[in-house]
Amino acid sequence: MLLDDDCLCPECRKRVQELKQTYRIEGRFVHVLYVYNEFMEQLFFQYKEDRDIALAPLFLSGQSRLIRRLRGCRIAALASWPEKTLQRGFDPLTEILRAWNLEADRPWHKTRSFKQSENDPGTRKEVGHLIACTPDTTRQRRPGRLLILDDVLTTGATLDALFSLCPDAQAEALVLAAHPLWLETHKKDRQSHPVFFR
């Protein structure tokens, strides 16, 4: 039996470590939904690398309040490297949103493949030079507060690059899952009374 609008069974849901925490990083708000624990890593691998597109709904499953909030935002998501998207046959963030009738603008794209897990921490910080603005995105703009969407936060380098390319100084970010090391490093940046997930 599934829980409410939850597509995870109760036993699997217990293995998901929900966080719902907001961090203020250099004046920008970063909202984190889950901890990137071993189970979440397995889910993302099965979804993205094993191309199990049926898993797309589960990343926002059981989050009806958050989904309502997202409907009032202008979501901007980093597109995968185009060749990787062709290889998979789908874009992971697009499908996660589509499962809940949400859409995202695509103001940025990766200029080549770069897998964080295959690089050392120093090299991971260089990911910013692999992200470029996508031409003619102004025609796609929707109303609402700009919310940058990323699936997994490891070092924060990708998010830093997106914020630096973003013309909206009020833009915030929603990260589906953050690595425990990033969370530990940014303990001091946690907001005492986060309202984003309420």
TrEMBL record:
<dbReference type="InterPro" id="IPR029057">
    <property type="entry name" value="PRTase-like"/>
</dbReference>
<dbReference type="InterPro" id="IPR051910">
    <property type="entry name" value="ComF/GntX_DNA_util-trans"/>
</dbReference>
<comment type="similarity">
    <text>Belongs to the ComF/GntX family.</text>
</comment>
<dbReference type="InterPro" id="IPR000836">
    <property type="entry name" value="PRTase_dom"/>
</dbReference>
<protein>
    <recommendedName>
        <fullName>Phosphoribosyltransferase domain-containing protein</fullName>
    </recommendedName>
</protein>
